[in-house]
Amino acid sequence: MARDTKRDRDPKKKGEKREKRPMRKKKCKFCLDRVTYIDYKDERRVRRFMTDRGKITPRRITGTCAKHQRMLAVAVKRARLIALVPYVREYYR
Amino acid sequence: MRSYECAVIVHPAVNDDGLRASTAKYVEIIAKSGGEITKVETWGKRRLSYEIMKQPEGTYFFYRFRGANTLIDELGRQMRIDENVLRHLIVRDELAEGSEPALEPGTVEVTMRHPEREREEGVEHRGERY
Prior knowledge:
The complex is a heterodimer of chains A (about 90) and B (about 130).
Chain A: H1 5-9, H2 29-32, H3 43-48, H4 59-62, H5 66-81
Chain B: E1 2-10, H1 16-32, E2 36-52, E3 55-67, H2 69-81, E4 85-92, E5 110-112, H3 115-120
Parallel strand pairs in B: 2-5
Antiparallel strand pairs in B: 1-3, 1-4, 2-3
């Protein structure tokens, strides 16, 4: 169990759960701006929620709420269709 | 009657006359099928994110109009036939209020927009601050 060696070295933490890091809850950026519709033509904004590979970044990374993530997904897919953003971008090897 | 928006990517080899003919054609199709055009917009020639039919760029047009659902079928059909149309997308226009004045089919003007340049000049989109 190579993974546990680090925890075992610290006697205080033995048997305890891993120390919880206080996580600040991320706020949905669309909610803050009271967005009711995400436009697929707004390339800059749509791109901000995509990885450089062209994937849609998950909610757990961006903190987007479920409602706005659904709207975002639609916008990204439309933007892909009219070639404003890529479906995939391959890295050069 | 519902409000729609149609995005069209026209082949980059089409010249200005061809583009004018193309918009006139689709404006007429919309008008003939009982639709009302509220706005026609172009972004000019732009680089595509990926090649479509071996073309690295294309001219973008956006038609905003009101019409019946049969109009959407007809417009989409015509665009699929048109070899100069690389790609088209018809979606419901969520931002339309349905009360925009309808334009006369014969005198529809195409407004030129540069989203990138507008952003540099500080015409910020709503909520654009992250």
